[in-house]
Amino acid sequence: MDAIMHIESALETAAALAASDDAPPRLAAAIRYAIFPGGARIRPRLCLAVSAACGAQNLGASAAAAGAIELLHCASLAHDDLPCFDDAPTRRGKPSVHAAFGEALAVLAGDAMIVMAFEAIARAFMDRPHLLPPLVQTIARAAGMPSGIAAGQGYESEPQLARSQYQRAKTGSLFVAATVAGALAAGADGAPWRMLGEGLGEAYQIADDIRDVASSPEAIGKPVGRDAALGRPSAALELGVDRAVALLKRLTREAVDSIPACPGADWLKAQVLIETLRVLPEELLRRAA
Amino acid sequence: MDAIMHIESALETAAALAASDDAPPRLAAAIRYAIFPGGARIRPRLCLAVSAACGAQNLGASAAAAGAIELLHCASLAHDDLPCFDDAPTRRGKPSVHAAFGEALAVLAGDAMIVMAFEAIARAFMDRPHLLPPLVQTIARAAGMPSGIAAGQGYESEPQLARSQYQRAKTGSLFVAATVAGALAAGADGAPWRMLGEGLGEAYQIADDIRDVASSPEAIGKPVGRDAALGRPSAALELGVDRAVALLKRLTREAVDSIPACPGADWLKAQVLIETLRVLPEELLRRAA
After folding, report:
1. What is the domain partition of chain B in residue ranges?
2. Per CATH, which fold does A3-287 belong to?
3. Which side of chain B, N or C, has fewer Cβ within a 10 Å radius?
4. Inter-chain CB proximity B147 and A79 less than 8 Å
């Protein structure tokens, strides 16, 4: 089974459990809608890749951890798109969850997916419970306060908004969780993997800023020009597109250089480079080559 | 330290951690506002009482589990009061979280408190990780889908709403989590404690229905008459107040009779009876005596 199949299978297991028994059907449908079909599944693929590079024996359990990361991501998108935040009508090329199911079910779907993330991990590591304290704490730190996704969103309600702090919490935290949880799920030490997550999170945010300035809604499946419209910090707006692309490339190189010694280090380095290039519009890569 | 001090201390630890480092101050304030001052803390006190009755050695860890139950409750209230659900202006005698901090911070505070619940448990049981799989699964089941608080709220978006199913998920699930997690935290088997939680959850919901019909906003710190106004299922509306009070008393007796053999069974039975009587307006107790 390749990585994406492991991840989709873990997400399918979680969604099926959430829809079991007497689950309210419309909420179950909203959850499924929020999860499938996915975007690029960048964070869970990073998590699983780190786990594999660390020599994980049980890729099913690692995929559950990767799926938990993706569930938190899907939850944050469902809430982020709500009228009281971005009021985004579309996401991944289709109506956002609240546009399709209403605000109430979008709030509840997000809540339920946060819970599903922790439940999936508890289930997958039942036979290795000593891994649960660091795993639960790693994904909790990425999702909540004081420095996870909720914190990142919370900075938007502050009068002063510092770009790096905001983006580290809103985007970077889940990349850090992906690399650290990937290592932990393989039974390795998580701490040395923080730097890779931090670097890739920052690189990804800059790529996202660039796409918001330089792409079309058709190419990225969501509205563009939102950062300027909403007055949000953006590296592409602050630096200009060309310098932002150069920064992205530097950050990616540094992230790759930070990969700790492990059985699959060379393979992982190649994977990370391929992935980073995939997220940018082709014409930008050519321009900055 | 008595029970309520243990619980407040666990909640204080969680709130302080959420507000640490560079946490966005307004979100940290919204979280604190949602947790303190508490209501009757019925669910965490039940959790801690069961733990004590089971002979728990480490009441601090049990209090963390109890605090997690309360955090999930506070999260559900913050989201439940949102304009897209009940649109409640007040809660516990003060403005609701969204009325005081706005919708965005109320959504995020709820999200963060769900995460804090799992984090608190992972931290408290780091030295007994074998207890984490059942504990995480117990509180996940109570909070999410297919039969937890989110599911209970989700039933409100279904065309047909069956009272018992709805209330079992929306209210009963957290009472079941309180009794089961209390036993688990003491190292005991959780399953025999489900029935106590189910019975008390149902009794509490009926008491709540009765108060919504027969109390004043001043007495219970939130608006009354909401069930009728919102067309929600209510035992007091369906049966009339006197028969609802009689049902409440019968359910409480049955719940008490279900308490499994444990070192503190007699003490726990007395506690449960005292607690149940506390939640009803005095004149109703006299009327139905």
Report:
1. 3-287
2. Farnesyl Diphosphate Synthase (1.10.600)
3. C
4. no
